[in-house]
Here is the input.
Amino acid sequence: MQGALAGIRVVDLSRILAGPMCTQILADHGATVLKVEPPTGDDTRTLGPPFDAKGDAAYFNAINRGKQCISLDLAQAAGRGVLERLLADADVLVENFLPGTLEKWDIGYDGWIKERFPRLIHCSISGFGADGPLAGLPGYDAVLQAMCGLMSVNGDAASGPTRIGVPIVDHLSAYTALTGILLALHSRHASGRGQHVEVTLFDAALSLLVPHAANYFESGQVPGLLGSAHPNIAPYDRFRCQDGEIFLGIMNRAQFGRFCAVVEQPGLAADERFLDNALRIAHRDALKCEIERAIGRWPRQALCDALMRAGVPAGPVNSVAEAFAQPHARHRQMLVRREGYRGVGLPVRLRGTPGAPGDNPRSFNADAATVLRSIGYCAADISGLIAARAVPAAD
Here is the structure.
């Protein structure tokens, strides 16, 4: 069966993380994605070790499967001519240049894309957008985590404000871009016209502040560091048991009562300090001490199994290796393993049009000749583009 996006053609001018992750998801669900890199290549090819046998960083391979790869120098008119041919039958253009870069090359949305390719959906991803006090400035995930308050609620007194351990702003920006593209494709069914989709890391980062922003708006109290704890729920934190740590996610009195029964501490459920969620938050430090005293002799896996069977959400604090070694990860096909490639599986499943992990990531400029021939360039034309350095020579 074909993926849900079979027939959709995507030109991907993006690099680093948010844009390439978005276009990989499109490719996993059937879209034809052409990755266009500058002559220096996507920087993530160099962000290692580790590197694969081709010399590309594992980081690059994580977000660039299922794409054809060509390099163009868009600063040259000849390179822009190739791009124009590529866009002639494309449905989506994704790029994350600094705002104003395409306009500098006279290929911006207004006046070029909009007029020449009225059905094209042009998705721009940037740090701060094209207007406003921070317009056009560069933005990176960790910088936006700092600027937008995410670090201020992540960490504890010992660590201080701490970067979240995954590039979460880039990840959310990728999914936000994906959502915008799919909304625009749906709108095109009715209108027949494409549109410009704008995504900024700044907006995405601020949108992550749930429930911290709502708490601040209501109370006027600036949220602080809670470590792994939750500002509105207790116990919702990590706790140490016999051979490591677990995370408990207890939302209500019934779950708390079941937890106390499993660990054979009925007195905790009856303790006046812990009778409801608000009281448990008010006494969260004392509650943590009581819980760790109660579970100190339990092996973490046995405890989590017993709690989950009793309807109490709990899980071991796993390493990355342990996470992918879980039988359920294998059952859910969240580890892709094949010759020359290992990666993360698809996090969304469609029963009627299921996606599939795309082909292994390609080497730099690997598909240049094939792509150029497919849009009408003959051998002499291709030689001319290479001689002019609008397209790098094949290795």
